[in-house]
Amino acid sequence: MAAIKEVKPVRKEFRRVGAHSHIRGLGLDENGRAKFMADGMVGQAEAREAAGIVVQMIREGKMAGRGVLIVGPSGTGKTAIAVGIAKELGEDTPFVAMTGSEIYSSEMKKTEAMMQALRKAIGVRFRERRTVYEGVVSRIRIGYVKHPFNPYVRVPHEAEVVLETRDDSVKLRVGEEIAVQLLQLRVRRGDVIWIDAETGEVHKTGRICEKREYDISVYKCVEKPSGPVKKEKEIVHLLTLHDLDVAYAAQRAAAASFLGMPLTREIPSDVRQRVDEEVKKLVSEGRAELVPGVLFIDDAHMLDIEAFSFLTRAMESDLAPILVLATNRGITKIRGTDIESPHGIPLDLLDRLLIIKTRPYKPEEIREILRIRADEEEVPLTEEALEELTKLGAERSLRYAVQLMEPARILAEREGRAKVTVEDVRRAAEYFVDVKESVRYIQQYEEKFLK
Ligand SMILES: Nc1ncnc2c1ncn2[C@@H]1O[C@H](COP(=O)(O)OP(=O)(O)OP(=O)(O)O)[C@@H](O)[C@H]1O
Ligand SMILES: [Mg+2]
């Protein structure tokens, strides 16, 4: 008998833990009330509940062309809440995240960078009704012939497949193109597949799992389909306006490069006009549907006056995504001007935004956020070490406390400890200072030498 033993990896494989990897949603109950701790979110109840209302408005299509601004001090979860909104909206709603400073890239004009971001945030859902053969494969036989140029190689030539549903069974004989796909997709008995009657494209939906074959399987278990094998099926694809722009521009670029015209990274505006016209036509014919997604711009005070006026104008167009901005600035100059404005955002744009505020955390909230982050970063803490970090988080900042975790873990490991103790945290805090301390330190020397 073969003995099988599980081998625990010594050190976990490379996995980048992003700052917001623990956020899985907004953590609201069915009445939209924030649970103290859910979906990786802790506390900050009003802001999360407000974000929940925004999510509902987006889902009901009541937010198009409007925006949200999340304001609050640094480290109070503004970005975390935006990530929560994205998670709540689900896969099907486009969500584009950028920071205000990203528009100053040297590769593209500012307005082009913003235009692309805007168009990535608008989806177009195409629905198509197609005739397909769908069912469980109950028999499959692939017929081979000799390769025309190499008699030692056999190539698939045709196939015979029997597809079954609860009510029907159809035997299909298919040609080479489909036989090749059946092989490539490794279609076996018990797989649920559908074949497009017109194009011959084969799709594998999953497998009928009667009994558990293995503990871990890579395929999805599905139910046996019912109804006829040959039927009409609705197929949905979601593309963004940017995808369509790129596809259309590429077609033209191929022609242009043939004629020796230079290529640019920017998409010509007439391409966008054409795409818009086509999309509007498809929508009015009922063949496509617009899915306004979310464009999230973090550190919105980094945008300049041109970018703001571009955004304000874009929000008024009929193909506009929902804008979510975040900033930690109070009254400050609008970049590119000498005008001071709340959050560095021009008033005409501010007027169009719903404002959500985040407030500084209480120690109990900090403790739970740190606990979640410690778990996420796989840093085992003793209760006292967590208390010490909570104290640092409350006195200095939450970010600072989070950043000390990994150094503290290394210090503990060097001492041969499995868990991080108070001493490790204190030593980490001696090695790495927070911003207030680093500024105070430099100022002390400036007084002595630099004057
Ligand atoms: N309510 C919360 N629940 C769980 N984790 C949170 C919460 N608030 C913040 N965090 C986490 O704390 C860290 C700091 O929060 P975040 O980056 O969202 O702050 P911010 O308000 O965007 O700050 P800044 O103004 O500096 O950009 C992140 O890792 C974030 O995921
Ligand atoms: Mg942030």
Q: Averaged pLDDT, please?
A: 88
Bound molecules: adenosine-5'-triphosphate, magnesium ion
Strands, total number: 16
> Helicity level, as a percent range?
25-40%
Largest sheet: 7 strands, antiparallel
N-to-C terminal Cα separation, in Å? 81 Å
The level-1 CATH class of the largest domain? Mainly Beta
Q: What is the CATH superfamily label of the largest domain?
A: RuvBL1 DNA/RNA binding domain
Judging by the overall fold, what is the CATH architecture of the largest domain? Beta Barrel
Work out the count of structural domains: 3
Number of helices: 13
Protein traits:
451 residues, alpha/beta, Rossmann fold, OB fold (Dihydrolipoamide Acetyltransferase, E2P), Helicase, Ruva Protein, domain 3, 3 domains, seven-stranded antiparallel sheet, five-stranded parallel sheet, 13 helices, 16 strands, binds adenosine-5'-triphosphate, binds magnesium ion, hydrolase activity, helicase, DNA helicase, P-loop_NTPase
Notes on the structure:
The chain has 451 residues and is of the alpha/beta class. It folds into 3 domains: 37-121 and 293-357, P-loop containing nucleotide triphosphate hydrolases (Rossmann fold), CATH 3.40.50.300; 124-286, Beta Barrel (OB fold (Dihydrolipoamide Acetyltransferase, E2P)), CATH 2.40.50; 363-441, Helicase, Ruva Protein, domain 3 (Orthogonal Bundle), CATH 1.10.8. The protein has 13 helices and 16 strands. It has helices spanning 45-59, 78-89, 110-120, 176-184, 241-258, 269-284, 305-316, 347-350, 363-376, 383-395, 398-414, 422-431, 435-450, and strands spanning 37-38, 41-42, 67-71, 95-99, 122-146, 154-164, 169-174, 191-196, 202-207, 230-240, 288-292, 294-298, 322-327, 331-333, 340-342, 353-357. The protein is globular. Magnesium ion is lined by residues 78-79, 298, 326.
